[in-house]
Write a structure and sequence with these properties.
Elements: H1 3-19, H2 21-31, H3 36-53, H4 59-73, H5 78-92, H6 99-117, H7 127-143, H8 147-163, H9 188-203
Helix pairs in contact: 1-3, 1-4, 1-9, 2-3, 2-9, 3-4, 4-5, 5-6, 6-7, 7-8, 7-9, 8-9
The protein binds adenosine-5'-diphosphate (ADP) and magnesium ion.
Length: about 200
Amino acid sequence: MDTDMFVAWFEEAARLVHRDRERLTRLDAAIGDADHGTNLDRGLTEVHKALTEWPPESPVQVLTSAGTALIRRVGGASGPLYGSVFRQMGKVLESPVTLAGFSAAFEEGVVAVERLGKAAPGDKTMVDALAPASRALALAVRDGVGVREAFEQAARAAAEGAEATIPMQARKGRASYLGERSIGHEDPGAASAALFMAALATVAP
Ligand code: ADP
Ligand code: MG
């Protein structure tokens, strides 16, 4: 896994979020303030700009640059949260990047989000898509499957995790103000996290 793959990951994530920005905003309209699609679309446009203006020379530089751009440009809770996933990954990722190394770094990124957002699985947040994806990657490493299949399994786990937020009651973030009325809607951050994992599966070597 090289620098180009990591750049392609964010370019593909930007494409998917731009394509689905209205769906993400609609999900946020139901249980938040209707800005998640535009927030993340703006942030990923900034990521693209950063990666183009200062071409990264390593996977770590991609992650750090993308994380920083997301923190700077996504207004809203999700910017710092996504930023911390990628910046933490960048802190611990070893080169050359193997599947086991990617999986370990991703797991630490998810822990960073859980710590920053004080969120656990079941709280109806992006963690409900990210944590199953992380678990799927760890299992794939254990079972010795190839990178592409591992990323596909992680993408499936994230999509299932996002869908599983529908019957949950939100305990964190803006949606938690709705109490029981948050039940019955997919969490927008979990939905966008599933797009990040889908993008990863697409660019797998
Ligand atoms: P805001 O809520 O500030 O408008 P966004 O709409 O961009 O920010 O993002 C909302 C998403 O952020 C939620 O759907 C949820 O997945 C995620 N989120 C919010 N608060 C937390 C938290 N404390 N921990 C983890 N994720 C959170
Ligand atoms: Mg919002």
